[in-house]
């Protein structure tokens, strides 16, 4: 039986933040880091860790998009 590789939450946070910074280059990097950390942490109890990054990134994009829409131009 194949053993599941170790899950490194900090590495996942960094990957999510990097993807978000590419997608939202005009957003505050501190905000992006915070949203990435929060959303990855939201999935910390997931049984299948392989999907934490994509799920967290999707949720973070929704948060950042919603936040951008709520801010006045």
Automatic annotation (TrEMBL):
Q: Which Gene3D superfamilies match?
A: Corynebacterium glutamicum thioredoxin-dependent arsenate reductase, N-terminal domain
Q: What highest taxon heads this organism's lineage?
A: Bacteria
Please name the NCBIfam families in this protein's record. MSMEG_6209_Nter
The name under which this protein is listed is Uncharacterized protein
Q: Which organism is it from?
A: Arenivirga flava
């Amino acid at each position: 039986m194949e053993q599941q590789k170790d899950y490194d939450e900090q590495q996942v946070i960094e990957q999510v933040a990097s993807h978000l910074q590419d997608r939202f280059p005009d957003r505050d990097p501190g905000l992006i880091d915070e949203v990435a950390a929060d959303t990855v942490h939201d999935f910390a109890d997931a049984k299948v860790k392989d999907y934490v990054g994509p799920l967290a990134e999707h949720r973070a994009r929704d948060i950042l998009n919603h936040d951008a829409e709520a801010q006045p131009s």
